[in-house]
């Protein structure tokens, strides 16, 4: 699909202007959620653009995605896949706006807004030198998501009280290549001021020392007014990952929502939600919705539409901000509890029925796994569907559960009733630990102390990220049980990436850790196929799983960074890990749902001195 910039060309007579859309390129639908979502910058040849808000998207042909449980958590009526117009046409799909606005010419070294180069239509070229222009390498952003061009004029004229632009000079940008550091990037002005390098521009106080404050600009939202913002802006590289962090949520499709009349009605709900019962029944007859579903009646369809409509009405009821936060926490807990219940019960495949969720126990007994490794259940998830939705995004700092709502940048000017999402299909293996053995282990004083050390650091960080917001700070999930399940998921993913032939980045974890939950789901899911070919499910067969566990635990017992890794009392970002590093536990970002924090290898195998006993220690 191709983002389309709002800058349009007019052809024909002035009295009859015609809007034409310039096709920039193509990206996959999933990338508009995970990589190039609203507010993210995308490089197209020698140009750079910013993906615009969803209120500018043409979703007339965008497929509707139904996942009621996730919609309830995010307070929307449903989800839409990003539009994908015909590649042979230039119809509007996803729009983009040029950003950054500052460009430079590598030949004459001019640094100025793109429009002043007078480039030929559809090309980024210096009209004087006929050289391809280069987008600015630097931007400034604040933790509230605001974004703007780097203030080059103020940077080169620092210490000069002349008003902005009043010197009459023209900026120049030159990278002499003498070093790879910012010292080699030189900014000058034809007014005669001495050239300065970009060295020091990334310091936290660099912009504040120049008197530069956040302007509150939101260039990804068309004609959006600037917001009042007190956050200090930071200098960032245009291609840095810190420029855009997606705030995503996901849910597995589980019964009853993944089958039966709920699955049947989902694709047609948009057409039926505003109709009365008689019109719904007429639609069912005309469209022959029940032609291949004799087990359901028109009344079943009417009841399902009424149930979904009632849920939507409940979402529109005004509530206090604190109640909104509480609802979000409760819905997330309900989301995971529902998945956990479905994963612990068999849901066999039914002939002749389309199912998004098939979960069965292995044919062979798991007695050996229970006695030797403390597992009480293994389930083979032969088919699953996951919906991943983009709710908002962050800049500068990674998303945190304690973030103030102000730190989450909006993806539309007015709150939308839908969010962009995509669905993936795949398979996985679910393992559940023996609750009695787990309870005995997690109550050991040494385990409680190790978990408390991480939890204190995490709660301190959550409080700092919450700032002065009235939003209640959520408790840290760092318990002995959570650390164990998290570490178990990571060692299994690492082991299966070696034994099963899957790259670690293609496997994902889902942790179910609570007073009544103790399970791990490891799965693979892709948006461009119907899942894998049974390779992950095969890893869950008892004999193979026993070998994987034994080998994974053996690898975890020693790290190439030991003894420093195992003896560490605080490691990782913000000291939120203990015995965990890139050589033993850390995974690619796509695999870990917790950003590689809250990990402790000692929870699995214990410490060498025997003071802390691992859950799997014989």
Provide a brief overview of the structure.
This protein has helices at 31-34, 68-74, 152-156, 206-209, 260-265, 269-272, 277-287, 298-315, 321-343, 367-373, 435-442, 445-466, 480-499, 535-539, 542-556, 564-567, 602-605, and strands at residues 3-4, 9-11, 18-20, 41-44, 47-51, 64-65, 78-80, 94-98, 102-104, 111-113, 134-135, 138-141, 147-149, 171-175, 185-189, 196-197, 234-237, 245-252, 358-360, 375-394, 418-433, 507-514, 517-526. It has 618 residues and is α+β, with helices and mostly antiparallel strands.
Describe this protein's structure:
- The chain starts with a strand and ends in a 13-residue tail after the last helix.
- The chain contains 17 helices and 23 strands.
- The chain is 27% helix and 20% strand.
- Residues 1-18 have low confidence and may be disordered.
- The chain has 618 residues and is α+β, with helices and mostly antiparallel strands.
- It is globular.
Q: Report the total helices.
A: 17
Sum up the overall morphology in one term.
globular
Q: Helical percent range?
A: 25-40%
Tell me the major beta sheet: 8 strands, mixed
Q: What separation lies between the terminal Cα atoms?
A: 55 Å
What is the β-strand count? Answer: 23
CA-atom Rg in angstroms: 27 Å
Low-pLDDT runs of 5+ residues are 1-18
Averaged pLDDT: 84
**Percent of residues in β-strands:** 15-25%
Query: Helix- and strand-based class?
Result: alpha+beta
């Amino acid at each position: 699909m191709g983002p389309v910039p709002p800058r349009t060309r007019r052809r024909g007579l002035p009295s009859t202007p015609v809007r034409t859309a310039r096709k920039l390129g193509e990206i996959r639908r999933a990338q508009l959620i995970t990589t190039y979502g609203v507010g993210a910058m995308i490089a197209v040849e020698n140009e750079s653009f910013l993906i615009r808000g969803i209120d500018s998207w043409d979703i007339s042909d965008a497929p509707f995605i139904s996942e009621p449980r996730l919609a309830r958590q995010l307070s929307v009526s449903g989800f839409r896949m990003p539009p994908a117009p015909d590649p042979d046409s230039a119809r509007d799909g996803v729009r983009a706006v040029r950003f950054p606005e500052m460009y430079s010419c590598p030949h004459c070294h001019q640094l100025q807004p793109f429009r002043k180069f007078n480039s030929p239509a559809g090309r980024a070229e210096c009209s004087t030198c006929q050289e391809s222009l280069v987008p600015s390498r630097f931007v400034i952003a604040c933790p509230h998501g605001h974004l703007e061009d780097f203030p080059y004029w103020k940077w080169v004229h620092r210490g000069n009280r002349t008003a902005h632009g009043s010197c009459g000079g023209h900026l120049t940008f030159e990278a002499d290549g003498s070093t790879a550091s910012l010292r080699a990037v030189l900014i000058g002005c034809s007014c005669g001021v001495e050239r300065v390098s970009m060295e020091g521009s990334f310091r936290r106080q660099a912009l504040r020392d120049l008197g530069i404050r956040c302007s509150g600009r939101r260039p990804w939202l068309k004609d959006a007014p600037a917001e009042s913002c007190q956050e200090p802006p930071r200098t960032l590289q245009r291609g840095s990952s810190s420029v855009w962090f997606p705030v995503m949520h996901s849910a597995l499709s589980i019964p009853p929502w993944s089958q039966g009349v709920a699955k049947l009605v989902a694709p047609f709900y948009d057409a039926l939600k505003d109709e009365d019962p008689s019109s719904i029944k007429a639609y069912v007859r005309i469209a022959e919705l029940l032609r291949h579903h004799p087990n359901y009646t028109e009344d079943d369809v009417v009841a399902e539409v009424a149930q979904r409509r009632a849920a939507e009405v409940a979402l529109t009821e005004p509530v206090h901000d604190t109640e909104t936060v509480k609802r979000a926490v409760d819905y997330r807990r309900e989301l995971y509890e529902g998945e956990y219940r479905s994963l612990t019960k068999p849901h066999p495949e039914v002939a002749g029925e389309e199912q998004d969720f098939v979960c069965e126990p292995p044919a062979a007994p798991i007695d050996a796994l229970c006695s030797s490794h403390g597992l009480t259940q293994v389930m083979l998830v032969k088919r699953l569907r996951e919906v991943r939705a983009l709710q908002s995004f962050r800049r500068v700092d990674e998303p945190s559960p304690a973030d103030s709502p102000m730190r989450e940048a909006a993806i539309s000017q007015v709150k939308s009733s839908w969010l962009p999402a995509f669905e993936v299909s795949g398979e996985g293996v679910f393992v559940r630990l023996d609750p009695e053995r787990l309870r005995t282990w997690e109550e050991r004083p040494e385990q409680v102390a190790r978990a408390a050390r991480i939890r204190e650091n995490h709660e301190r960080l959550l409080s700092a990220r919450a700032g002065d917001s009235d939003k209640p700070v959520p408790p840290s999930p760092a318990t002995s049980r959570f650390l164990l399940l998290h570490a178990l998921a990571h060692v299994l993913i690492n082991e299966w990436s070696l034994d099963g032939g899957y790259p670690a980045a293609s496997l994902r974890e889902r942790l179910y850790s609570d007073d009544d939950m103790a399970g791990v789901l490891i799965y693979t899911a892709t948006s461009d196929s119907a899942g894998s070919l049974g390779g992950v499910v095969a890893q869950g067969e008892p004999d193979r799983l026993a070998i994987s566990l034994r080998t994974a635990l053996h690898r975890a017992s020693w790290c190439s960074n030991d003894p420093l890794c195992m003896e560490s009392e605080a490691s990782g970002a913000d000291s939120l890990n203990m015995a965990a590093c890139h050589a033993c536990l850390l995974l690619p970002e796509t695999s870990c749902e917790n950003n590689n924090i809250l990990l402790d290898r000692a929870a699995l195998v214990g410490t060498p001195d025997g003071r802390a006993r691992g859950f799997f220690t014989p």
